[in-house]
Design goal:
By secondary structure, the chain is mainly α. 75% of the residues lie in helices and 4% in strands. The chain has a two-stranded antiparallel sheet. Strand 1 and strand 2 form a beta hairpin.
């Protein structure tokens, strides 16, 4: 059983690696323009869920999250070049960062305060997953208005990675499972956005 979980975790890690490498290539080619606010919060959240999951017995199942975290930090650094840039797409010239995005960033950052104050790994993970979902909103908004700034490959692989991660966990509880469940839902939503918008263009 343990060997099976190792194999599943390795496959999930491969999906994390391939998906993020593909996304980085698309950034270099100008095909995608990651939202810096989203990726900044994700960098913090992924680190917390990784260590929180380890503390609560995730075991080898935490490996894909750890690999994804390394790429998340790298993608955030590359996303900074889009901080003050606009984009002329199918909906006309749209600022990459809109006023509402500042509010979501502020809410996400404020959510880090109770996370920093609590010593309970489960409460910490629940808080940061909530922050993670809030941080997703600017990217969802950008994807809906500017579908040409994102590609579905990474998000599709994220869905597969998190499904495999759930099967590879060493222990099942709120701290180890809630992040993957939330990410399956949010990444599926952004893939649906991209497929719908690109099909209609």
């Amino acid at each position: 059983m343990f060997e099976t979980k190792i194999i599943i975790a390795i496959f999930a890690s491969i999906l994390a690696f391939v998906g993020n490498i593909s996304y980085l290539k698309d950034i270099f080619k100008g095909r995608v323009k990651p939202h810096p606010y989203t990726w900044f919060i994700w960098s913090i959240v992924s680190m917390t869920t990784f260590f929180g999951g380890l503390a609560e017995g995730a075991g080898i199942g935490a490996l894909p999250t750890g690999i994804a975290e390394g790429f998340t930090i790298i993608i955030f650094l590359f996303s900074l070049k889009f901080l003050f840039h606009g984009h002329k797409g199918s909906a006309g010239h749209i600022k990459h960062i809109q006023k509402t995005d500042h509010y979501f960033l502020a809410v996400a950052l404020l959510g880090l305060i109770p996370w920093a104050l609590t010593k309970d790994p489960t409460i910490s993970v629940v808080i940061v997953v909530t922050i993670d979902v809030i941080a997703f909103i600017p990217t969802l908004r950008k994807t809906w208005l500017q579908p040409e700034t994102e590609e579905p490959t990474l998000y599709s692989m994220n869905v597969g990675r998190h499904i495999l991660t759930l099967f590879s966990l060493g222990s099942y509880n709120i701290a180890t499972t809630i992040h993957s469940i939330a990410m399956i839902c949010t990444n599926s939503l952004i893939v649906a956005f991209l497929l719908k918008k690109k099909r209609s263009n």
